[in-house]
Write a structure and sequence with these properties.
This protein is an all-alpha fold. It is built from 15 helices and no strands. Helix 5 (87-104) packs antiparallel against helix 6 and helix 6 (113-125) runs antiparallel to helix 7. The two termini are 42 Å apart.
C-alpha cells in the first residue's frame, strides 16, 4: 500500500495544516477488544488460583494468536495442557514458513503465489494472526481487497499490531474511506510500538484526517516513529524542527534528523541535506 507524506516544494509549501481547534485526547480512542471480561471464562481463570495450566483453550489461543515460533515453542513447554492446546498454532508456523518460501521463491522452491496464498490460509485457519496478515497482503496485491480487509479485521481484533496497522491503512484507501475507523486502529497499533502505524497516525493528526488536527501530537508521534527507525518519520521530524511546527524550532536537531534520514536512503532528505552542506561550504 502506498503511503503519503508531506507536500514537496512544488506544492508551494511543505506544510498545509489547519489551526488547532480541539485538543487531542487519547480517550477519544478506546480498544474494541478485551479478552479479560467478566465472562465465565475469566471467572474460571480467577478460580484456578493462579494455575495457568487450567487456562481455557479459547483464551489461550487468543493470547498466543500473534506469537512467533520461538514464543510458541517456549509456551508449549509450560505444561502438557498448553503443549496440546498450542499444537494448531505450531502447525500454522509451518504453513507460514512454506507460504513465505512460495511467495519469495526461497528454500529451493519457485515463486508460486497460489501455493503461497493456500499455505497462508491454512495457517490462518489454525488461528495464527501472522498468517492472516500475510494472506491479507497477498489478497490486497491481487486486488481482492474485501478478503484482505476481512483477514486484517480478524487479526486486528486478536491484537496483532501489524493487522491493526494494515486495517487502518486499508480503511484510509477504501472507497469511500473510513477515516475514523482507520484512525482508531492506527492508534491501537501505535500504542503497541508499530512504527509504520505511528507515522501514519501522525500524518492523520497533522492533516486533520479522521481526527482533529493537532500539530503537537503529530510531532510527538513522528518523533516516536523516527526513534523507532522509520525513515519517513525521520524526514518529517526534521521538517518539524526546521520550521518549529509541533516542536520547538532547532536547526541543529533539524540537521541531525535530516542526516539520519539521508543516511538511510530517503531521497528528499539526501537532496535537502546536500543543499545544506553545499550552503555551509560556499557561504
Amino acid at each position: 500500500m502506498k503511503q503519503s507524506t508531506w507536500p514537496g516544494r512544488s506544492d508551494g509549501s511543505r506544510f498545509k495544516s489547519l489551526p488547532i481547534k480541539h485538543q487531542f485526547h487519547q480517550s477519544e480512542f478506546k480498544s474494541t477488544s478485551k479478552f479479560w471480561s467478566t465472562s465465565s471464562a475469566s471467572r474460571q481463570i480467577r478460580s484456578s488460583d493462579g494455575d495457568f495450566s487450567k487456562l481455557p483453550f479459547d483464551i489461550l489461543t487468543k493470547i498466543a494468536a500473534s506469537f512467533t515460533l520461538p514464543n510458541l515453542q517456549a509456551a508449549s513447554l509450560v505444561c502438557k495442557s498448553w503443549s496440546e492446546g498450542l499444537r494448531p498454532l505450531r502447525e500454522a508456523m509451518l504453513f507460514l514458513k512454506w507460504g513465505k518460501r512460495f511467495k519469495h521463491g526461497r528454500g529451493g522452491v519457485r515463486p508460486n503465489l497460489n501455493k503461497a496464498l493456500e499455505s497462508f490460509l491454512k495457517g490462518a485457519a489454525r488461528g495464527s494472526t501472522l498468517a492472516m496478515v500475510d494472506a491479507g497482503l497477498l489478497y490486497w496485491e491481487i486486488g481482492d481487497k474485501d478478503k484482505a480487509i476481512a483477514l486484517y479485521e480478524k487479526a486486528a481484533k486478536l491484537g496483532d499490531r501489524s493487522g491493526q496497522c494494515n486495517l487502518g491503512l486499508a480503511y484510509l484507501q477504501a472507497e469511500p474511506s473510513k477515516r475514523k475507523e482507520a484512525v482508531k486502529w492506527l492508534f491501537q497499533a501505535s500504542k503497541s510500538g508499530h512504527v509504520r502505524a505511528q507515522y501514519q497516525f501522525a500524518l492523520c493528526l497533522h492533516q486533520g484526517s479522521g481526527v482533529n488536527c493537532n500539530l503537537q501530537e503529530a510531532a510527538r508521534w513522528y518523533l516516536k516513529a523516527a526513534e523507532g527507525g522509520y525513515v519517513r518519520a525521520m524526514y518529517n521530524v526534521a521538517l518539524c524542527y526546521s520550521v518549529g511546527e509541533g516542536l520547538a524550532q532547532s536547526h541543529r536537531l533539524a540537521r541531525k534528523w535530516m542526516k539520519r534520514a539521508a543516511d538511510r536512503g530517503h531521497s528528499k532528505a539526501q537532496f535537502e541535506h546536500g543543499l545544506g552542506l553545499f550552503s555551509v561550504c560556499y557561504c
